[in-house]
Amino acid sequence: MLWLLSAVMMGKDMTESALFNMVNFRLKNGLEVVFLKNKISSAASAGVLYKYGSADDDPKTYGIAHFLEHMMFKGTKQYPKGQLDEIIMRLGGSHNAYTSWDKTFYYAVVPKDGLRTVLTLEADRMLNLSFDDAEVEPEKGAVKEEENMHIKNHPFGETIKIWLRTLFPVHPYGVEIIGYPEHIEAYNAHNTREAYQQWYAPNNAVLIISGNFEETFIRNLVEELFGGLPPSPHIPEERKRHQDPKIEGLARTIVQENTRSSVVFCELAYPSISLQEAKNPAAIMAYNVAAFILGGNDVSLLYKDLVRTKKLAISVSLSHQTGLDTRHICVDFELAPTMDVKICIDTYKKFMKELVDYNMNQDWFKKRFEEVKNQLKGQMVFAVDGTTNAIRIFDRCAEGHTPEQVNQVIKNIDQVTLEQVQDVFRQLTAKPTGTLIIHPPHYQISE
Amino acid sequence: MTHQAHKDHLKDLPRIAKIDIKIQTATVNNIPIWYLPTQDTELVCFKISFKGAGTVQDSIPGITKMFSSMLNEGTEDMNSETFQNFMLNNQIQLFTDYDADHLGIAIRTIKPKIHEAFDVIIKIMNNLKLAEEDLERNRADMIVSLEQSKHDPFSLSADALKRLAYKKHPYFTSIDEQIAGLKTIKSEDLRTVFKRLGQDNLLVTCAGNIDVPTITKLVNGLTNILPKNAELKTIPDAELNHEKSIHHVSMPIPQSVIRFTIPAIPLHDPDYYAYELMEGIFGGTSMKSRLFQDIREKRGLAYYAQTNIINMEKLDVMQGATGVSTENEHAVVQLIKDNMIKIQKEGTTQEELDFEKQHSSGIFALNFDSLQGTVQTLSHLQLDGFPSTYINDYAKHLDSVNLEQIKKVAQKYLNSKKLIIVITGQSHAMAS
Questions:
Q1: Whether A264 and A222 share a structural domain
Q2: Is B88 part of the contact surface with chain A (CB cutoff 8 Å)?
Q3: Do B369 and A304 touch (CB under 8 A)?
Q4: Which residue among A138, A261, A387 sits closest to B151, beta carbon to beta carbon?
Q5: In this structure, are residues B294 and B339 in contact, taking their beta carbons and an 8 Å threshold?
Q6: Which residue among A94, A153, A389 sits closest to B366, beta carbon to beta carbon?
Q7: Phi/psi at B317 (nearest 5 deg)?
């Protein structure tokens, strides 16, 4: 009886581990569709995700993916400039977009009845973007001010720019998504349209919808509005970017005395792995679990040791940065100017060494590992609160994940093994790819 | 063809977006409860808010900030670490929020854990830990963040606006005053915050898989431990300081942050709806507003240009912000003034008004997309003293506004002579 019971329970777990009540299908023209049912919201959210970001751009015009995102609000022949905004806003909705290195995502939230209109507009601008050449220069002005705001006005903005290039000397992840001012200068109507022609097509997009609708309604509506769009023959099989050379033993350290800093900020970046390389989502998730155990919150192991007990830092946190290509797992420390960054880093290294040499094989750690996995899974259930939150989670489909893999995040966490996490810890005891320290004037780093 | 397609989408649109959700209300032990129950989710959100218990009551600047943070640092039977693990293991999320006027504690959890969540709230309110080491850790963190915020143009310019545009008032404690305060705060000071939390200023909202008998249990628990009456000191009205209309703060940044403020209409004025629509047409957050169109769309001078209305218990103002390169500062200040004068003189067009009605009513409805958004919105409306029917009547009120009323509120309030502007940037770095 026992085996039967456990089989039944496993079956139950499998279905319950899905985050959303999801329907996933593909149109003949290649458009991938994800529908996430939300029974309680009176709103509907829809997003179009293009598998195209600034890392796909030509090195002369890095960031044109982001500029194109701006120009996509300029309209089409059928819905000229301003009408797109006007229609969405008159519907009582709001819409916006974001661009990253690997993706461009347009999203709108509207009262439920407005879904058809939003999808009509998205289908239209997937094929028919039309802007006046005269609109390019003023929009470049707005993008320059966006760059001023995010980078030049930020106390660490210019430093982060150098830091990115340090971590990625060749790979386009080394340039800010918005591009350098000289890249922005190089955008024109012609190359913007070229980027649009190359990347915007149903066979390079994922349409994500959430709301209280019937599956049949969504299938019919999407087929009606997007089914007639032609697939593009230009979409590359593989999004190949210039890869960084693998150089052993190279120490890359950036130290800045920053007059606009009152805090000592330190980041250590270690290589991670992308889904493209790892193939298996649980292998990626192992980095997330490792980051969460070590520095995910105020009860994580490193926070407890360095902040609570030894008072060597104000905060310590780990983040796992994912992308289509391999990025990093980063350890961030924040110190008051009275604290010693050298002692902090040394203590961290000692902690990691003891963890790998001894602690991670102890029973207390194995218990903590299981507890933390359950905590991570437990937090996931809140992702279903609201249609707006729901569709955003699926932007990872532009990083090589299938919608099913995104929806099975709880299962992915479950499958992470102790050995996988121990492996990540071992990587964190190796030399980091880079070290960044930003400190206030007159701060001395001890030898 | 073009216009036809456009019209097709708009022809069936209602002039305003009506909200058909029905907020239910109950009163338990004289405590008003607003709730939106549904069986179609496992999630539950609830929030307890205390009217008038915000930072304005601080005897030392930073008390509420620290108190709010310490709510997550354990109770007498659970130290900080045990508490935080308990919350994670039980899928209970705690959100604390405060502003100058109010203080709130919200919980998001799953139905099977609702009673654990209630117990946590009661323990926090009755037996908060306030351990010395947690206080020190939070203190160090807050001071470093506040020091660093002085290098951030957004924080620094907001701080400058508080200091320069308004007369001294407990609403406006500067970053430096907060740092100085935080350095001295002791756990006894934090305990005084509990005096602000009484049955008579408690409001409760909830949404999700929860029913009245369940909420009643929470409210009974709270009334058992909360004093009948909160002890709140009386706060005077806050005022703008019109001694100088334009202030400069120096900071070595290429993009100056321009912030401005001007007196606005009180929240419960019958013309409030007209004012709200007028403000949306002038600035607001929409891409169709006159400021956004003039500053960004036509000229590309800024990435953002927006305004918002701030109605506090003792202050009603409109504030705005935009970021422009140093050489465009004067042009943009002039554009802001010109647009104010134009609306004041000519009012707005019917088309703009119709658009803004649809837009504002729709945006309001989107607050109810998530349970968390619902609970926050309901709590704000309760704190502002509106009846629960406000939610369903809001669109109707907007719809009744006409062009005359828009012109009237513009003439009364959109007075560019009362405008106070603070520019943070490098053009004046040399001078000061």
A1: no
A2: yes
A3: no
A4: A261
A5: yes
A6: A94
A7: -140, 160
- Tell me whether residue A78 is in a domain: yes
How far apart, in whole angstroms, are the C-alpha atoms of residue A147 and residue A319? 24
* Phi and psi, residue A67, nearest 5°: -65, -40
Contacts of B345 (CB under 8 A, 6+ apart): none
What is the residue range of B214's domain? 24-225
Distance (Å) from the alpha carbon of A314 to chain B's nearest alpha carbon: 6
pLDDT tens profile B244-275:
999 999 999 989 999 999 999 999 999 999 99
Q: What pTM was computed for the model?
A: 0.94
What is the number of structural domains in chain B? 2
> How many CB atoms sit inside 10 A of residue A400's CB?
22
User: Percentage of chain A with pLDDT > 90?
Assistant: 88
Q: Is A68 part of a structural domain of the chain?
A: yes
Cβ under 8 Å to B: A residues 138-197: 138-143, 145-146, 148-149, 152-155
> b/e map of A334-368 (b: 16 or more CB within 10 Å)?
bbbbebbbeebbebbeebbeebbeebbeeeebeeb
Decide if A118 is inside a domain.
Answer: yes
Structural domain includes residue A287 = yes
A120 and A61 both lie in a single domain: yes
pLDDT of residue A246: 86
Mean pLDDT of A269-291: 93
B286: contact with A, CB 8 A cutoff: yes
Percentages helix, strand, coil for chain B (3-state, rounded to 5) are 50, 20, 30
In this predicted complex, what is the ipTM? 0.93
User: By residue range, what is the domain housing residue A342?
Assistant: 253-439
> A191 and A265 share a domain?
no
Residue A370's closest chain B neighbor by CA?
B89
Q: What is the pLDDT, as a whole number, of residue A83?
A: 87
Beta bridge partners of A129: A76
Claim to verify: residue A162 and residue A278 sit in the same structural domain: no
